Amino acid sequence: MIWGVLQFPGSCDERDALHACELAGDGARLIWHESRDLDGVDGVVVPGGFSYGDYLRAGAIARFSPAMEAVAEAAEAGAPVLGICNGFQVLCEAGLLPGALLRNVELRFRCHQVDLIEEGTGERLSIPAKHGEGRYYAPEEMLDEIERNGQIAYRYAEGHNSNGSVRDIAGVTNERGNVLGLMPHPEHAVDPLTGSTDGLRVFARMDRLVSA
Amino acid sequence: MTVGTPKYRELGLTDSEYELIVEKLGREPNDVELAMFSLLWSEHCAYKHSRKLLRRLPTEGERVVMGPGENAGAVDVGGGYAVAFKVESHNHPSAVEPFQGAATGVGGILRDVFAIGARPIAILDSLRFGELDSVRSRHLLDGAVRGIGHYGNSIGVATVGGEIYFEEPYEHNCLVNAMCIGFAKTADMVRAAAAGVGNSVVLMGASTGRDGIGGASVLASAELGEGDEEKRPTVQIGDPFEESKVLECCLELLAKGLLVSLQDLGAAGLTSSAGEMASAGGVGIDIDVAEVPLREADMEPFEIMVSESQERMLAVVEPERVAEVRAICEKWQTGSAEIGEVTDSGLIRILRGGEVVGEMPVEALVDGCPLYDLDPAEPGGWIYGNRQTLAEGAAPEEELLALLGAPSIASKRWAFEQYDSLVGSRTVRRPEQADAAVLQLPESGNAIAVSIDGNGRRVACDPYGGTIDAVLECAQNLACVGAEPLGLTNCLNFGNPEKPTGAWQLDRAVSGLADACNALGVPVVGGNVSLYNEGPDGPIYPTPVVALVGEVPDPARVAGNAFVREGDAIGLIGPFAPTLHGSELAKQRGQLKMGLPQPDVAAVAAACTIVRDAVRAGKLASAHDVSDGGLAVAIAESAIAGGIGCEANVEHLRERGCQPEEALFGEGGGGFLVSGDREVLEELGAVLIGTVGGEQIAIGAGDRSLSVSLAAAESAWRSLDLA
Fold it and tell me: B44, B92, B150, B581: which one is catalytic?
């Protein structure tokens, strides 16, 4: 699988995502935010950072970029799309994922290792989280609906939901399952030297969509 | 401001300095020229009270790629790569407006590093505030931590380490020192010297506004006092998004070989960057202020020349490449304007729409400021206060918990979790996992370790010995992760050098720094000086902050500071002979006074080598430098970090002349607390002092023996939380 990693002005984790995609897949390249052409990639990562400075609202401007129009079309066609942190915020702003990310309940940016439980398999993953606006929120009816549809991908393990997300939700998918957004950073968990390799399992999950 | 005071005095120049300017120009300066001279001749820019002292520092070394005088120092890390690094203070802006002061401190040091063509890969910071029971100190701490996080997190550079101390003398004048580490292909690095007569001068990045006008002279070169809130408009406002674009833009321009030279705009704005580029290149520069993109159309030429608006860079570009440079700036959605030209006149000429509004010889403006000798005098005794918070007869358990819970010693998790410590995928050891930050460099196949240290209280007790201790502590922190020092940078935070005590502290500290660096064989590749750090109650503790960058051949071998295995032996390595002089315990007892025992630098250096080699060979389970709070605190820290207790006995230190309470809580250089196999520790010459295991921290020390539960120790150590 060949990955494309979007690069906005203000992206921070795009080089880390590129490296993780190279490890997890068969290759990866950066895609400039002004490009409407995804360069033939099989899947797309919308990376973390502070796209366009995030001064208005996290992800609010990036969703209008030409590259995001192309991503929406690719998502519609069933391509895997992984939004990490700011990328998750962008995908929610773009309406490709349900819900929204609000400021952390403690109103502070926090960087620490968290444990996630993958919905369905019950697998436990240790992955870093680092954000100031990561409190997942959706109205009750929508939450009930995405639970019913199996759209909750990851929840924070007990004691690890430090941002105040509803129902401990750390990551959700679209109804079809090919678009996944999560606040913790799998691309920062691909090297035992820097802490954990559990992030590779998130990329593997996306990979299965292509091979399936 | 008093009516009738000459304008040059309001701008911080003395009568004799003004006379010298008139002599050098052959006439009275006009307003534009006066504004520019007053900034470049300020302490902050001209180092007029410190430059002579700094000549004592050793700056040569075989691994030095760039030394003092460049935007940042740099050392060779092998494989054709170099690591650049620099520390700078942003003390006075932070004391006036902590969030923006600290944020722009980070922004400024990042620009210094990418100005030489290195990609910033890490930030560290060294902070000092008054005691935490002060509302002002909590406000400053909160603002500074948020500001550092805001800028570093947003621009995507990992904040991997640092230190925070709380002491009464910083109550009014906090210290915010920010350090940046950069990584570059040595061949791609660029110097700041302007060259090539006829080349264009291009200003890139943000537009120029009225923020930060006079920051270098008004804020950075005078004591703080009443009415400082009126100085808020002199504090710059940071925009990390703009800087992120400028950073990527500059690195792309350098990678494509489109720039002749590059310089950041920091204190004194265009005046200092144009002046320093011209001076370094031995050329002149013309600048037309009408070409500078402005935030407010009605800015005066002098305002444009001295504005400290952030996120701006100045480049020298060959005329035929200007279009390509501007196109890349456009790609990154950042500004660019051709504002001037390199000349052979030896003059800095300021024009407005072609009309000359200022004209000064570069030599007079940049290098003409007189350098002063200090008039040092040793004070008769302890000039700072003493405040008792712990009774002398307290039980040793109570003392240990009081030390672990002291804000300067307690875990700083509350602060460092507000920083992204991971972005860039280089962070092998996160904050508090080891004594130094460790960053892997897959490009060159190795890693670097970085530590930033300073203990103002000990330097106040003895500026010479205390500064040596700071360098040794930094070296010991590096040894604990198996790193060999390659270069040192520093930030000298002191009080008023025109006062005899301030002069004495500075003079002695610089000598200590020079002697320590010579003894360790470590070159000083750069530095920064921040003077006039005084409030209404007097000067700060003299605070030289030193930072070492060292090489780690194999990051997989790096030891942590946590006890690992039940049954491991605990050992003490090094010529550690602690006393209560200048210690945290002496502070809490209100017993601070002048004097420190002199460290044996050669013996400490030998111990560093033993520990470094053992870590590199993977022989140690843990290694931890003994510093604030002494051996008992170091033992407790390793136990808490590992989540496992221990039994130890420190009575062996009696042989080194230590009383039981000195053995427990005394401080001094040269102590390494290690754990591992008993035979291995014996081979290394460690004194065996205990065994890892259990739920208690039990330390035998004669009539001061103590035992506390791991949980009680951890709860005290984790007590720092401003949430």
Answer: B44
Residue B232 pLDDT greater than 60, yes or no: no
Per the structure, the count of domains in chain A is: 1
Render pLDDT for B317-357 as a digit per residue (tens, 0 to 9).
Answer: 999 999 999 999 999 999 999 999 999 999 999 999 999 99
Q: In which residue are the tokens 């773009």 written? A: A94
Q: Tell me, which fold does domain B569-717 have in CATH? A: Phosphoribosyl-aminoimidazole Synthetase; Chain A, domain 2 (3.90.650)
Q: What is the pLDDT of residues B569-578, one digit of tens each?
A: 999 999 999 9
- The C-alpha angle with vertex A146 and arms to A145 and A151, in degrees rounded to 5, equals 155
Q: Kindly report the CATH number assigned to the domain that includes residue A47.
A: 3.40.50.880
Active site residue A111: no
Percent of chain B with pLDDT over 90: 90
Catalytic residue among B49, B90, B581, B624: B90
Residue B482 per-residue DSSP state: T
Question: Per residue in B356-376, pLDDT tens?
Answer: 999 999 999 999 999 999 999
Residue range(s) defining the domain that contains residue A65: 2-211
ipTM: 0.96
Across the A:B interface, residue pairs with CB atoms under 8 Å apart total 87
When CB atoms are compared, the residue of B417, B556, B723 closest to A112 is B417
pLDDT at B589: 97
The whole model's pTM is what? 0.95
Question: What residue in B sits closest to A193 (Cα-Cα)?
Answer: B428
Q: Does the CB of B241 have a partner CB in chain A at under 8 Å?
A: yes
Cβ(B102)–Cβ(B176) below 8 Å: yes
**Domain spans, chain B:** 7-49+191-367, 569-717
User: How many Cβ atoms sit within 10 Å of the Cβ of residue B338?
Assistant: 17
Rounded to whole angstroms, the Cα distance separating B79 from B186 reads 9
User: B425, A19: Cβ pair inside 8 Å?
Assistant: yes
Higher pLDDT, B334 or B1: B334
Mean pLDDT of B423-442: 95
Q: Per DSSP, what are the bridge partners of residue B551?
A: B448, B484
Q: Is A177's Cβ below 8 Å from some Cβ in B?
A: no
Nearest to B490 by CA among B513, B511, B472, B464: B513
Query: What is the average per-residue pLDDT within B244-256?
Result: 95
| Cross-chain CB nearest to A191 (options B239, B248, B425) | B425
Q: Please give the torsion angle defined by the CA atoms of residues B695, B701, B702 and B705, in that order, rounded to the nearest 10 degrees.
A: -40
| CA–CA distances in Å: residue B695 to residues B621, B698, B715, B716 | 19, 9, 14, 16
CATH of B7-49+191-367, one of 3.30.420.40, 3.90.650.10, 3.10.280.10, 3.90.180.10: 3.90.650.10
